[in-house]
Specification:
It is built from 3 helices and 2 strands; from the N terminus they run E-H-E-H-H. The chain has a two-stranded parallel ribbon. The longest helix has 19 residues, at about 15-35. The protein is mostly helical. The mean pLDDT is about 90.
Length: about 100
Amino acid sequence: SSGINAEYGDSLLGDNQQCISVIMDYLVAEHLAKRNTEIDVQQWNLTMKKEIPQQCNTADCGIFTCKYAECLSQDKPLDFQHTDISDIRRRMILEILDKRIL
């Protein structure tokens, strides 16, 4: 498992080691359950991303997470900011209601 790069970003710019630990434990357990083999995440190269869009409150983390996932899955830059969240939320609502990605 060496050579695997993993990135962690917190839109509140925290350094949540407990969260990272829970995520890594989940990945180990999921790999064991699905592939019936163990992985050593201690060999992974973990990067704490700090140059990411930041939220200005504690209520928008779900929107930020979804937008991060959208950008990363489409290989797009994280070029949004907190002032865009209302528009992003409206677009997400339309996508859910229309059952399609806009």
